[in-house]
Design a protein that fits this description.
Blueprint lengths: L22 E14 L6 E9 L7 H12 L8 E5 L5 H14 L19 E12 L5 E11 L1 H5 L32
Antiparallel strand pairs: 1-2, 1-4, 2-3, 4-5
Length: about 190
Amino acid sequence: MNKPQGYDEAQSYTGDFETLELGGHVCKITAVKIEYTQNTNAEVLVLAFDIAEGKQAGFYQRKFDEARKSNAQAKWQGIYRQFTQGNSTPYFKGMIENIEKSNAGYNFANTGFNEQTLVGKLFGGVFGREQYKAQDGSLKFATKCRNIRTIEAIRNGIEPPEDKLLKEEQNNSYFSPDNYTEDDLPF
């Protein structure tokens, strides 16, 4: 056998990687931005976060650092998106209230709805598996923050949500991998 070109410089891959446990985690917001959907121009609040407590604290930073070793264009994977307008306003308000309850003295309305004041705030993330269709057509699962609760609820213990299975009609939805990418996110 001939020595492969670039063998000495290559990062070794042993197949060992950390997976995020399903259920509740206390999280910390690391960055925030507002996006608008292409089709309807709907406003979406985008939160970048990391796990803040417990044995998996720093999970997304470790995952990002590892990905950057082999791909300089790797993106931050701890992301939560929440529509803010129309039928989504009650869900947005509930999310904000859970963040306020998790951070004593913080009041989002008193900031003039300045989304950047969310950076550094804690929240309780509920993590579950979501099914998606891979580029080769196979069905796989990704662990995602499915909703935001108070850190008190997380510390008291919370069950992981049921798997969110892909439905055929969802293949053409806004959140389909073919229609939505994170390429423009700065984090």
